[in-house]
Amino acid sequence: MAPKDEQSDRPGLSGVSRRDFLKSAGVTGIAAGVVSSAAANAQTGAAPRIVGPGEVPIQLTVNGRRIDLQVEPRVTLLDAIRSRVDITGNKRGCNRGACGACTMIVDGRAVYSCSTLAIESQGKQIRTVDGLASANGALHPVQQAFCDQDALMCGFCTPGFVMATVALLEKNRNPTEAQIRKGLDG
Fold it and tell me: How would you label 66-89 residue by residue, b for 16+ Cβ within 10 Å and e otherwise?
């Protein structure tokens, strides 16, 4: 008796092997997606805007200030702000959106800036930990609470914790423990 893998390649009663059937089904699905996408673009008259591979102009609003940059489309929000604008409060930790050290608030929502493209952040209000203090230098209440409670640990991920906490409290001034847990889980 032939092994199971070899049997699946032999044509059945219809003359088509299981492998050939799956290949054709996959190709058909891909082709349908490409054709429907092209048809949708043709109907709206809008062709997808191609940017890159070189640098493109973008405009960001960071801590209330308009910033014009030239970046490659693959540059993350964290890299654009830290390296090109020299706003260095938010840190790179894991570089994959797991540790939270890079957390910024974009349009009122906490985001991992190491996983967000700068080009996607155009037209949005971006806040970093550097922009939380008031104009006279007084710390934001969350920053002050971290200092007062000695919650700084080594300090590397503290900016992300502060930003996540600010985002949570801006959504709900008096969150319950369940709401805090939900905020932590996503």
Answer: ebebebbbebbbbbbbbeebebeb
Query: Are 72 and 52 spatial neighbours (Cβ–Cβ below 8 Å)?
Result: yes
Helix axes 158-171 and 141-148, enclosed angle (nearest 10): 130
For helices 177-185 and 158-171, give the axis angle rounded to 10 degrees: 120
The CA angle 142-145-150, to the nearest 5 degrees, is 130
pTM: 0.69
The residue behind tokens 């973008």 is 58
Instruction: Give Cβ neighbours of residue 112 (< 8 Å, ≥ 6 apart).
Output: 97, 100, 102, 103
- 70-116 pLDDT tens trace: 999 999 999 999 999 999 999 998 888 888 999 999 999 999 999 99
Chain centre distance of CA 165: 18
Strand 103-106 versus strand 56-62 pairing type: unpaired
> Which is nearest to 114 in space by CA: 85, 92, 87, 141?
92
